[in-house]
Amino acid sequence: CIFQPKNFAMADFPSSSQEVSKQWQVFISFSGKDLRHNFISHLEGAFKLADINYYIDYKETPSESQNIFFKRIQQSQIALPIFSSQYAESKWCLNELAEVMKQAKQGNLRVIPIFFNVTPKDVGSPYGSFGCKVYVESQHNPSSLPIWTKALKNEMLLIQEILASVKKVLALEPNTHNVPSREISPVISGRISSSRKFFFVEVMNQRIKQLQEMIDFNCDQTQIVGIVGMPGIGKTSLAEEYFERSNDRYSFNKIISDIRERGHHYLEYKLLEGQKLNEEANIFSKKSFLVLDDVSQKKHIEFLLQNRRRIKKGSKIVITTRDKSSIAEFSPEIYVVPPLNDTDAWQLFNDHAFKGGASSTKGNFPKLTQKFVDYAGGNPRALEELGKELNGKDEAEWVTRLENLPYQCNSIIKKELKISYEELTEQQKDAFLDIACFFRSEEENYVKCLLDSECGDVVKKLAEIFFICISGGKIEMHNLLCAFGKELRSGERMCDHRKTTTILRDAVQQETKDVRGIFLDTCTETKGISVDSKRFTEKFNPMNLRYLKIYDSLCPENCKVYLPDGLEFPFENIRYLHWENIELKELPSDFNPKNLIDLRLPYNRKIERVWGAVKELPLLKWVDLSHSTKLTDLSALSKAYDLRRLNLKGCTSLDKLPEEMGNMKQLVFLNLRGCTTLSTLPERLNLISLKTIILSDNLEFLHLDGTIISTLPPTIQNFKKL
């Protein structure tokens, strides 16, 4: 729409009754150089990638006659009028629109209007800025006004007919093969920014291409693909777009949405469409292309599982789910929807955070933006919702929200995540919350030992629903899920140091009986925290508390929790006890470690022994007593037969190890560096699993018989007293 004729008569319109062959799939009508060099260029690139045959004005030699463009409209299957503020200023575009609407009314053309920085109301109203520009342009050609106005009004009526049923905005890359003959699918945006272009075009094309590599419509074998990923990652958008581009391949095509929210027999009802359950039903007699969206349980697809052998060979089935285990019986190929890269994520966030003309480069907004983008981890839904939440707020409000992010999930995101959470068993919920609050980024086997002692392999289940992922042998969790978990049960799992400090200092009894774990980092405390022994026991139910960690992440030896009256510790269900610089010579005598798995008491200046009497330690696997400079007695560990790691680094007063240590057949790691008083090891060592031993320079005797150690490092010669 860049050619502006000097003289134009309505008689130039060709007769629409002529039979014209369809040479083009899409005719693009637009106005404006800025649009051409930005949005239109991206749209063209998307069409090329998708092999869509489109027509645009620069494919013709410039002339003053518009007849050739009217002919191209008649030769096209779909027209894409892109309404912008400049569209109404161009009588060339308005004439094109009149012809487009004439062809659409006669059933010769399908229309997909795109609204770029204008709304359908702007286009249909004679009083808005769009209508005013039409009126101004008509003053140069008064006879055109009735036709232009009628075209715009028809457009508005057609839009109104479908707006009631269209719930989601379609992508900016329509599929010309799939649009019903009497349907217009509008793309409406108050501000179609580069983020939307990237997400709906560049990103979508890349993902569609990956799906196409997994599904071959020319293959006679039935193929099933699961599109999986965490909530908000874009599973449904991808499946819908793939369906729109591919539903012309077979005669029986179905996309069934929101299956999670429907009843047990919903899928059967939708697939049979009132037909009898026999071989003549379409689902069994024809090759089918099915997209089943948001499956959460095996029972949702029970109908397909029971009739899988009856489905016609060559059918293609795409299933979106948050839970891989729900479709495992199909043995499908799996496509995990990847997160957005940093560039696309930044643009998508800015698109929502800086609406209304706000500057994204002002002050500290770029740095703050990067932190929010990092937090979202490439999740499109999170980027959009966080952007909307921050839109219109000043820098100080951004900073405050950033500080609360680890403990306060966005309300809309939280609602979405809670859907999956509520489908978990109580044991799975506990495991998820324990990881979110306490054990994120820990070794997989270590976390399993802490969690699975009574609830089975829940870690596997959490990975299947994308609540966690296993990376490099460690359990990782998305920031969104971590914040969701911390906020969901903050009263039972105390990991916010601000709230925890207040509770420990508060002399008034609070409702803390259901507390399952306490993690307190004292690095930000300028004053020490004095804990009353009896009040500590009264605050927390001895049968509930399982995890206790009191530490200083910056300087462990400066942990500032004081015990002026000692400590009572009747918490027999404790599995994890980590207390740096504990002000005790030994742990309380009432402590029963029968469920203890991990004991960490590093940087303790007072502790001389772990406890007095020898106690049963059936589950203890990890012990860290490093830098306990007054530790002299390890007899408390005599019955730790399942111990795997023992760290005694810097225990300068320890002069011997218990003889019973020779029976620790599971011990893999032993650190004795800095044990300057220790001169020998027990004579009878049966450490058949030992792989790593770190020794002190002061060592005089080393007995390795009974171990699997076959060679010693060259640095052994540095032990001068050995």
From TrEMBL:
- UniProt-recorded name of the protein: TIR domain-containing protein
Superkingdom in the source lineage: Eukaryota
Residues forming the TIR domain are: 22-156
Recorded hits in Pfam families, A to Z, give: NB-ARC, TIR
Q: Which PANTHER family match?
A: ADP-RIBOSYL CYCLASE_CYCLIC ADP-RIBOSE HYDROLASE-RELATED, LEUCINE-RICH REPEAT-CONTAINING PROTEIN
Give the matching InterPro entries.
Apaf_helical, Disease_R_plants, LRR_dom_sf, NB-ARC, P-loop_NTPase, TIR_dom, Toll_tir_struct_dom_sf
Q: What is the lineage of its organism?
A: Eukaryota, Viridiplantae, Streptophyta, Embryophyta, Tracheophyta
